[in-house]
Amino acid sequence: MSQSMLKTIIIAFFISGITIAIIVNPGESLVASKTGLTMWWEIVFPSLLPFFIVSELLIGFGVVQFIGVLLEPFMRPVFRVPGVGGFVWAMGMASGFPAGAKLTARLRQEKQISALEAERLVSFTNCSNPIFIFGAVAVGFFNNPALGVLLAAAHYLGNLFVGLTMRFHGAHEKRHSPTRERFYIPSIRTAFKELHQTRIQDDRPIGKKIGDAVLTSIQSLLMIGGFIILFSVFNKLLMVIHLTEYLGIALGGLLTLLGIASDLSVPLISGIFEITQGNNLTSDANADLLDKAIIASFILAFSGLSVQAQVASILAETDIGFKPFFIARILQGIYSSIFAFVLFKPLYLNLESQLPSEYPVFFMQQTPEWATLYWNVLTEIGPIVTLISLTVYLVIYGKRTLLSKTI
Q1: Under 8 Å CB-to-CB from 117, ≥6 apart: which residues?
Q2: CA–CA–CA angle 252, 152, 230 (5° rounding)
Q3: Is 113 helix (H, G, I), strand (E, B) or coil?
Q4: What CA–CA distance (Å, rounded) separates 52 from 104?
Q5: Roughly how many angstroms between the first and final C-alpha of the chain, as a whole number?
Q6: InterPro entries per the record (predicted)?
Q7: Which of 245, 347, 348, 365 has the most other CB atoms within 10 Å of its CB?
């Protein structure tokens, strides 16, 4: 039997098994589907849409090229990616996954970076945004705002070290970069020249650019929503058929060898598939806070197969390989877990001991305004933003479809 045939049979059995599990457990599947839909409807769509649209416009009008010229002396020698990677990295941290992958793919389609540079770039621009770390995980799940400082530090330091590690990816391959390879001193004049040339090359009218940005952004978010719902159902079915429990038993021995409570094995398995449910289960587990912080850091860094499937779908539209991204997620999980362990005492315990005296109002509330205001606003107005955006999408898409048929 050929390897291709074996792969076909495995995929067929896997999909058939999921279908049967959904048919046998319709109630649990419906609840999980609604949970995933709610997360996408209230949080993911309204929080990512502005970043996606603005990013598309910044690329179209040449602002990203302007930033790239200025950041080239830093990004090129440190991470071996063009200066435009600095923009992707910043937007990835601000908006969360999978924004880094989408912007990297967009730059590759614009031929502003090579495929090898794109593989390096996408590996360390996959970040969780600070609002999710502080608002959802630290405050929402752990009810511990100070823990958010530790999780954020471990997460972004792990991200940085992934970038430093992945700079060696493809070191033996011949470079085929469309951008500058040698160190140079950036100039504002050169940056403005690149901005102007990029805008001139894209001769679409401003209205067309804005419409395209809205359409492509919403299409990407619709795809992301489908993956969130699918993996919410899949994760729930694994728990219903007790497969998560059986895998947890096997993983518990490994965690014990590492000095981590075996009770965290099931939350870790769940987090490998979907980060929200995994972190929620981690916060409720019967274990020391240090062990919980290590597992939560790994889950945030690995980002779950749900997010990785979204990234794989985005990268499939280009020649960017997915394997380096997957390896980078494992590396970031290891790095972030180590940083959580190392920084727990000097960062978290010291901060917590100072809370009563130095931060009596800022931190002592159960749900601090600084960490939850944005999150609460999203859950309140998120559905309205989503509904209006989808309506605008249908109007623009409908008009263009009718226009193309008329022509």
Answers
A1: 80, 81, 82, 85, 177, 179
A2: 60
A3: coil
A4: 12
A5: 51
A6: Gate_dom, Spore_IM_YlbJ
A7: 348
Residues 3-45 have pLDDT tens digits of 778 888 888 888 888 888 888 888 888 998 888 888 888 877 8
Say if residues 280 and 235 touch (Cβ distance below 8 Å): no
Mean pLDDT in residue range 372-391: 73
Residues 6+ apart with CB under 8 A from 120: 79, 80, 81, 163, 166, 167, 169, 170, 324
CA nearest to 282, candidates 262, 264, 300: 264
Contact (Cβ atoms closer than 8 angstroms) between residue 231 and residue 274: yes
The predicted-structure confidence for 77-93, as pLDDT tens digits, reads as follows 889 998 888 888 888 88
Kindly calculate the radius of gyration of the chain based on its CA atoms and give it in whole angstroms.
Answer: 22
How far from the centroid of its chain's Cα atoms is residue 316's Cα?
17
Secondary element (H or E) of residue 306: helix 304-315
Q: Map out the domains of the chain as residue ranges.
A: 28-406
Q: Which two tokens stand for residue 363?
A: 């931190």
- Whether residue 98 is preceded by a cis peptide bond, meaning omega within 30 degrees of 0, is yes
Residue 158's region, left for phi above 0, alpha for psi from -120 to 50, else beta, is alpha
E strand or H helix at 33, and its extent? Answer: helix 26-39
